[in-house]
Amino acid sequence: MARSCIVGRQGKAADVKMEVFGIAESQCALLKEFVPKGKCILHEDACKKCGQCLVPGCPAMVKQENGIPKIDAAMCNGCELCAKRCKFHAIELIPREKGGKA
Fold first, then answer.
1. Residue-wise pLDDT tens digits, 69-92
2. What does each C-alpha distance from 41 to 8, 26, 30, 95 come to in angstroms?
3. What is the DSSP pairing of strand 91-95 with strand 38-42?
């Protein structure tokens, strides 16, 4: 989905198109009816350090000093926003066991 916005610079305005894709469009993980799908894991050997997985702004992901993102398993709810952005298939969802944890 694209959204138009006005960007002002030195008194001038321009119409800019930007992609809206992120955490704000996902189901709230704090809702009682939210059921996590599992946990995402990153395969470091497949990661190209492009940073596309970081674009949605997931609080479970941080960029390490070596440029490879890290997924905090305690914070990941398996929304797969990061995995959907990765063109190199370096992020995989480990499905949640029925009635248990991921």
1. 999 999 998 989 999 999 999 999
2. 40, 19, 22, 11
3. antiparallel
